[in-house]
Amino acid sequence: MTKIVDVRAKSADELQAMLLDLRKEQFNLRFQRATGQLEALSRVKVVRRDIAKVKTIIGERNRAAATRA
């Protein structure tokens, strides 16, 4: 599980790359669940929450940039 402090320390490009990696992992976990190969069921929840954290930080930064402009 990623801590929010670690996510906030990343640049915008790093956040986009992290989001892409998490979405790929989420897809793979869903695929494993559908085929009955998934063993770590809790990982699905962790990945989903990490995606939410990254998207929240990206949204906060976008709103902050919009109010400055």
Helix content: over 70%
DSSP helical segment count: 3
Q: Give a short account of the largest sheet.
A: none
Highest-level CATH class: Mainly Alpha
Number of domains: 1
Tell me, rounded to a whole number, the average pLDDT: 95
Alpha-beta content class: mainly alpha
According to CATH, the fold-level topology is Helix Hairpins
Round the Cα radius of gyration to an integer and report it. Answer: 14 Å
Looking at the overall shape, the CATH architecture is: Orthogonal Bundle
What overall geometry do the principal axes of the alpha carbons give? elongated
Please report the total strand number as a whole number.
0
Q: Which residue ranges are poorly predicted, with pLDDT under 50 across at least 5 consecutive positions?
A: none
Distance between the termini: 34 Å
Strand content: under 5%
The string of secondary-structure elements, in order, is: HHH
Layout of helices and strands, plus pairs?
Elements: H1 4-8, H2 12-35, H3 42-68
Give your account of this protein's structure.
This is Large ribosomal subunit protein uL29. Belongs to the universal ribosomal protein uL29 family. The chain is mostly helical and 69 residues long. It is elongated, with a radius of gyration of 14 Å. The protein has three helices and no strands. It has a single domain (4-68), classed as Helix Hairpins (Orthogonal Bundle), CATH 1.10.287.310. Helix content is 81%, strand content 0%.
